[in-house]
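[job 4471] stage=fold_predict status=RUNNING
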Amino acid sequence: MKVKLVIQAGHNPPKDPGAIAGKIIEAYENLKMEARVHKALYEMFTKTPDLIPEIKAFRGNIAWKATQINLFNPLLAVELHFNAASSDKAKGHETIYSLNPESKELAEDIDFHLDRALPDHSDRGIKVGYYRQDPSRGLIGLFRRVLCPCVIPEPLFITNAADRAILRNDEKMEKIAWAIARGIMTFIRRKVGWSLTKEVSHAD
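[job 4471] inference complete, writing structure tokens
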């Protein structure tokens, strides 16, 4: 059985760099996390021979990406971001989700595994992806357009010193990537009715 997934980095450098904190440019950190999550997922799929993954990532503006996602018609879409705030006190991880009825489930699965990967990290929970500055504007662009379950995990604030220290720690970043992948696989397992034939110890 083929399982189609979209796991892509948010923003589109250099035109759209995302948040910037000193020398840290979010869009490039998103790309690094995309590569880590893809690698973790492909390793997990080696334990499920009946499932053949087809994982894509689209680059472009939001409208174009959403169109490509809908044409691809995946089981789910995850866009990887890092958070930022005007206050350097804001820290922790959160996952935002679209109004597709299954998006909340996917967000909960990813949030659960992020908690396990970073037990001492602040959990800001899950929330519907409305514009933060003005919720009356409705959902953010990707969530208005994508039809499949769609979430955006934001595991760290690049504007917070403690979170930036995690960003520079390869071991912890690997744990974050595997946590996101594990959350995705938990969702897939529930939807297509299979179980891992062998636990992947690195994911814990």
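[job 4471] summary: The CA atoms of residues 95 and 111 lie 6 Å apart.
[job 4471] exit 0
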